[in-house]
Amino acid sequence: MGLTGRLEDLSLSDILQIIGLGKRSGTLILKYDDKRAIIVFKQGFVVGADSDDKEDDIGDDLLNAGLITEEALQISRKVLKELPNSSVGKILLELGYIDNAHLESFSKKRIEKVIYRLLLLKEGDFRFDPDTFLDNDPLLKKGWLLKKGISPEYLLMECARIYDETRHYGRVLEEEFPEEQTFFEEEAFPKEISALRSIVQELRFPESISEIFLLILRFASSIYQRGILFSASKDILEGFGQFGLQVEDADEKIRETVIYIKKSPFFARILHSKTPYRGELLKDQETERLIELIGGEWPEEVVISPVIAEDKAVALLYCDNIPNREPIEDTAALEIFLSQAGMAIEKMLLKRSLKQKAE
Predict the structure, then answer these.
(1) What pLDDT sits at residue 258?
(2) pLDDT given for residue 286 in this prediction
(3) Cα–Cα distance for residue pair 287/277, rounded to 1 Å
(4) What is the DSSP string of 92-146?
(5) Burial per residue of 180-190, b for 16 or more beta-carbon CB atoms within 10 angstroms, e otherwise
């Protein structure tokens, strides 16, 4: 079954995860700002990607790295004119100018850069054609199809790392070291990226939704001073757990807390939009009652993120930085993790439904 729509309704990160979890093969085409991009999947793994945004090709990448000469690149492009069904990468390989290992390595880096830029898109159209491979597409001729693909999960984590390191340090830390030197100290990475890398594997085989909720709290606690996770239904939010609350019997109080959505326009709007909120905590009957319950100190800024499964909010994560009141920054890592958590919940609900039908 194909997949079509707009990025305003379904983000590229969600699309990558849907195709990856479904182990689908085919071609994803994106159109945006009079430009075009293509991503090729085989059994859920990304094996190729390129876009009109990148005017160069993999030959330019290899030339800039000093692995081929200008003469070799020009010869390969002349051959390409005679063999239009081939590609620059394939010709360089067949002529012996580059070996397969370097071609695969630089192709992976190229794919990561393309996906990173595409993930920043807010608008555009997409179409996924299953079991379709556009071998003669001009965009694919600019790169190289990997023999062993890259998992969407890895790509999302790498793009989150690049995004956060660029914001925190003004550069990507990895670029300061040769490719083979991957022995970075854990402290070199932003703390949320380190936490994401270590915890995301635990979402693969959760035994219950409660276990997923606990993982959410654990990950959020590595970023924020305090937080509360609510399970969500149509009419109410029920407290599940907390971290960092400096009130007596905090766990018990949260488990006994019920927020009535109809009495809180603020929470209702976030749940209805199904998108994360960062900013001022607006006052209404339920938000005032919640803050009073957790100590009475009104936060200057909050991050509130719904967890989405089966196209509805199944949980709501509230976070702030009281008592330290450190500035809250955007974090792509949290959004990626919550998206992964939502997918894990959705998968678990599907298994539960199939089991009930079998019985």
Answers:
(1) 97
(2) 96
(3) 14
(4) HHHTTSS-HHHHHHHHHHHHHHHHHHHHT--S-EEEEEET---TT-TTGGGS---
(5) eeeeeeeeebb
CA 338 to chain centre: 9
Highest CATH level, class, for 207-358: alpha beta
Among 91, 144, 137, CA closest to 114: 144
* Cα(159)–Cα(83) distance, integer angstroms: 35
Show the tokens assigned to 253.
């109080």
Q: Which residue has the tokens 């090709």?
A: 57
Query: Cα–Cα distance between 114 and 356 in angstroms, integer?
Result: 43
pTM over 0.90: no
Q: Where are the domains of the chain?
A: 3-150, 207-358
Sign of the alpha-carbon dihedral angle for 165, 168, 171, 174? negative
Tell me which residue of 173, 157, 177 sits closest to 165, measured CA to CA: 173
Binned at pLDDT 50, 70 and 90, residue 155 comes out as: confident
Q: Band the pLDDT of 77: cuts 50, 70, 90.
A: confident
Continuous segment of H or E residues that includes residue 208: none
